[in-house]
Amino acid sequence: MGPEDDASTFAKIPQNSTRGFGGTVHSWMRDLIIAAGLALVIVVYFYQPVRVEGVSMLPRIEDQERIFVNKFIYRFEPIERGDVIVFSYPLDPQRFFIKRVIGLPGETVQIRDGKVFIDGQELKESYIPKRFQTPENEPSVTIGTNHFYVLGDHRSSSNDSRAWGQVPRQNIYGKAVLCYWPPEKLSFIR
Fold this sequence. Notes:
Blueprint: H1 20-45, E1 47-51, E2 66-70, E3 84-89, E4 92-103, E5 108-112, E6 115-118, E7 121-122, E8 138-142, E9 147-151, H2 161-164, E10 167-168, E11 172-181, E12 187-188
Antiparallel strand pairs: 1-2, 2-11, 3-4, 3-11, 4-9, 5-6, 5-8, 6-7, 9-10, 11-12
């Protein structure tokens, strides 16, 4: 049994190609066009690169960082507390915001001395440094059907549900999943 008969062999690369320069260029161009087409399909239907403007999601996401937003995930998975989402601003649908989901439909959210309570239970938010918390109090709010309560991680510098209310489900564009620029910040967003 020779290497050609090995069941784990998936492709055979010829050692002496007789195609010449024109055939090689044609092959490379074909592969490049296919790769560009696949990348376009992925960006158009699944992932969208986004530049973050502002400091409301510090320290996790910084001003001018580039992230990928998965705009297809919520067709298969529910939106969960803690997800970092991109959505159209309810008061101006031409603008997009990025915030963290805090309250889910049907829950009651209240902020006391800067701590978030969901249905009377304190929400543990290890992702927020003490210096970004505020000692504020907000009245309790019951989240409507197909609505979400969102907050920025930099609580003292965030324009969020405390100011303008809940985010309707149809405004949610997708979930922030990967920071890719600058290169030293390459990481998944959790």
